[in-house]
Amino acid sequence: MPKKLFGTKPGCTPLIQHDIRLRSQTQMPIRDTSSRVPAKLVSVLKQEVEDMLDTGIIEPSRGEWVDELIERLGKATFLSTLDLCKGYWQVPLTESSRDFTTFRVPSGLYRFRTMPFGLHGAPATFQRLVDIVLRGADTYAAAYIDDIVVFSETWEEHVRHLTDVFQRIQAAGLVINPKKCHIAKTEVEYLGYVIGGGSFDL
């Protein structure tokens, strides 16, 4: 039962759910062209999205399509790529899930306390985590699973953007692997592309 019968926010029925089924496993959803939002409506749209998030109507998705992300990055002058140290292992497993990860070695039985690599659904969970961490920083930071990139047009912006992203990552209790990071470069390799100088190449 809803907490109240009358209200200005929608309820959520437990009686049915809607299920979307593709005709085949290889069929991809149709990617519609995004409409340009007039500048005067950007703040209105942002508030509407925030309201829908708060009421549970929508949730963060897996992020942008890779080609769209690469196109955005190609325009940047300064780029940094960040690697989270053994990223999946930084996500705790629920107590009820741990026995499912039990493995045997000569010294005995062990189970994971954190999310192991290769676990079904792990990439989606990690993507959701990074999307939460970078929420609100989408104009200068993005991630595809555990590959984080920070991109800026000027040096001053890049220092500010990097500082913000570092603070977000630290606040989330996550650790960056310094050996796998590339900081403040004019050209980086990201998702198989060489990006920088206003262009990108395979």
Automatic annotation (TrEMBL):
GO molecular function, one term: RNA-DNA hybrid ribonuclease activity
InterPro entries noted in UniProt: DNA/RNA_pol_sf (IPR043502), Rev_trsase/Diguanyl_cyclase (IPR043128), RNA-dir_DNA_polymerase (IPR053134), RT_dom (IPR000477)
Positions in coiled-coil regions: none
Domain Reverse transcriptase: residue ranges: 1-195
PROSITE patterns in the record: RT_POL
Pfam families linked to this entry: RVT_1 (PF00078)
Superkingdom per UniProt: Eukaryota
EC number per UniProt: 3.1.26.4
Protein name, per record: ribonuclease H
Primary gene name: Nfu_g_1_024301
